[in-house]
Prior knowledge:
Mean pLDDT: 86
Strand content: 5-15%
CATH topology of the largest domain: Alpha-Beta Plaits
Strand order of the largest sheet: 1-4
Shape: elongated
Number of domains: 2
CATH architecture of the largest domain: 2-Layer Sandwich
Oligomer: single chain
Low-confidence stretches: 1-7
Number of helices: 11
Largest sheet: 2 strands, antiparallel
Number of strands: 8
Helix content: 25-40%
Amino acid sequence: MFQSGFFPLALLTTALAVIVAILAVAAVIGGILFGLYLISPTLCFAVLVLCGLGIVLAAVLTVASVFLSVKGNEKAGEVRDRLPGANCGACGYSGCDGYANALADGKTTKANLCIPGGDGVAKDIAQIMGLEVGDVAERVAYVACGGLCSPETRKFEYDGPKTCRAANMLYSGDRECTYACLGYGDCIRACPRDAIVISERGTARILPEKCIGCGLCVRTCPNSIITLVKDTTRVAVTCSSHDKGAQTRKACKDGCIGCGKCEKNCPSDAIHVVDNLAKIDYEKCTNCGKCAEVCPVKCIHTGNFTSGSHFE
Length: 312
């Protein structure tokens, strides 16, 4: 005699319920077929043939799914669960799944390729895969536009779709400076960490403590004025204009005029004026800040670029 809660009783109850359900479905189908037979025996036969084919094909597909299925690599699943899910491609693969599969299949032995995940994710991956950890070169984005080209002053009244890409297609945007941030927020919509805001100047501004260095904003910006740098960086040129100094000054109070003072005063030969714009070679830069001190228009800024990956 089965006692309440005993496993065979639960199993028997489930089996009876399934049998009753099957009988109920069979009764309904039988009733439908009988009705069809009364109307037309030929039609009833055709329906029976189709039902039989459906059952046979369902059985074939079920067997094929069991014997021909490709089992997923459990290691890939474990690695994928530890990745941040940005699918940014910063690791060099198509996304988080691509990197996880590459690790599981032995196509790469580098556990430190996920820049958004930082050192924490690298340690987890190394533990799962039995690899060396390796340091992650965390990166952070910054907008190379000071935004002092008077946001209230526009070349024309733009009344199209409120996206930077759409606005940029019309005379390189409505800003006086054709290299300026347009401020319609394409980068904000692309950012998976809410690390970008529109400042009071009407331009995009990165919050380094939230930025994970995925690079999605960089690829989204139609003016290509968002740059990724190592989060050890402390100096950045916040201008992208390649116009000559006089023309730049007409559009922006904070634009680089290509005077070359930063170049002359850099002790590491890490900054040069190229095509009317100061460019920093971060492989040489020591973050001394002398270029920022001598810049007459203050378009070279110093600050803390510590990436949000450290806080994940």
